[in-house]
Amino acid sequence: MGGPETVTAEPFNAQTPAAALAAHRTAADALFVRSHFAVPRIDPDGWRLRVGAAEFRLAELRASGRREVEAVLECAGNGRSLMRPPAPGVPWDERAVGCALFAGVPFAAVAERAGLDPGAAEYVFTGADSGTVGGRRTPFERSLPVAAALHPDTLLALELNGRPLTAEHGAPVRLVAPGLYGVADVKWLVAVRSVEQPFSGPFQGGSYVYRDSHGTDGGTEDGPVTTVRVRSLITEPAPGARLRVGAETELRGHAWSGAGPVERVEVRIDGGAWRPARLRGGSRYAWCDWSYRWLPERPGGHRIEVRATDASGAAQPLRAPWNADGYGCNPAAALDVVAH
Ligand SMILES: Nc1nc2c(c(=O)[nH]1)N[C@H]1C(S)=C(S)[C@@H](COP(=O)(O)O)O[C@H]1N2
Ligand SMILES: [Mo]
What we know:
The protein has helices spanning 58-62, 107-114, 146-149, and strands at 5-8, 13-15, 49-51, 54-56, 67-74, 97-106, 122-133, 136-145, 155-160, 163-164, 174-176, 189-195, 209-210, 223-224, 231-236, 242-243, 249-256, 262-269, 275-276, 278-280, 288-294, 300-310, 333-339. By secondary structure, the protein is mainly beta. The strands form six sheets. It has a five-stranded mixed beta sheet. The two termini are 30 Å apart. Molybdenum atom binds at residues 34, 75-77, 182-183.
């Protein structure tokens, strides 16, 4: 499988190829890449992580524990190109997403070894990448509330799908806060500090905020971009596939939500009744795989629509929601096919 498909060359932003989304787990070399600045190449031997007043080498970090978390990684801008009118930003279609097995050290173990103040308001995570924002040299930095940072599933990840992280995905160490949009998962991590006031910066407050939100039936709340909204993806048939009248075909895809497991995936054909799909796999943060048997009964064009509902009761809106920076665009998945 080739690499992800370039959306912007500099900085490097690339989306997962459609063919790589069919599998439950997305291959590391196909997974989308989102970078705000040039990708830093870090020598792992020289790398150090500052946590408060403490400093860790890679070997010290590895010795602090190990945990695996299978999770969806999704950019908050995923699906932005569906918004009308268009919203500014990287024009992702619906493939700034994937599902991977992350492995690393629970951040809580490192925070404890470092003596980081558990009574602080937030911890700020700093990446090695930086660039000029508003005339000032700015690193990529984001915070998490202390409770979220110390959650046992919040990892300092060293591996993706059983292999060391690649440079594009944050080598040697990145944060993974499953259930939150990818922007929380600071790559090329070099420092963590505690702060007494809620942090704000160009990537938290300046951007990654829902503003002027509206939608016919969902996605109407303004505020910071945090939890991944419920969403689904159709992976089979492939776009433009030719189906045969009278031949049963299996529709497939994935469904996920940061707010809890997906409870229900429904399919409707040509605007008819919503019918339940079969669900398989899935865990707290990984997507589940849905399937639905369909027998095209007449030749011509057909529209397939898919909507997921999560354990919190949130369902995908039928039409794309809208907000000024194009985040969290999670309408029901739709695909037009032709039967012959
Ligand atoms: N240091 C750093 N971390 C970062 C970013 C970045 O530009 N710099 N981009 C964030 C965003 S917006 C997303 S969606 C994810 C993407 O992770 P990936 O490139 O491994 O797919 O990384 C996040 N972590
Ligand atoms: Mo993102």
